[in-house]
Amino acid sequence: MMQTIQNLEEVAMTTDQLSNQLSNQFPNQLPSAPYGTFAPEGGRTIKKPLTLNQLLQMHTKGEKITMLTAYDATFAALADAAGVHCLLVGDSLGMVSQGLPSTLAVSLETMCYHVESVCRGLARVQGSAWLIADLPFGSYQESKEQAVRSAVALLKAGANMVKLEGGGWTVEVVSFLVERGIPVCAHLGLTPQTINALGGYKVQGRGEAGAKLRADAVALEKAGASMLVLEMVPADLAHQITQDLMACPTIGIGAGNATSGQVLVMHDMLGANINKNPKFVRNFLVDSSGIQQAFKLYVQEVQSGKFPDNKLHAW
Ligand code: KIV
Question: Which residues' Cβ are closer than 6 Å to ligand 1?
Answer without folding.
Answer: 69, 88, 90-92, 134, 229, 231, 253, 263, 265
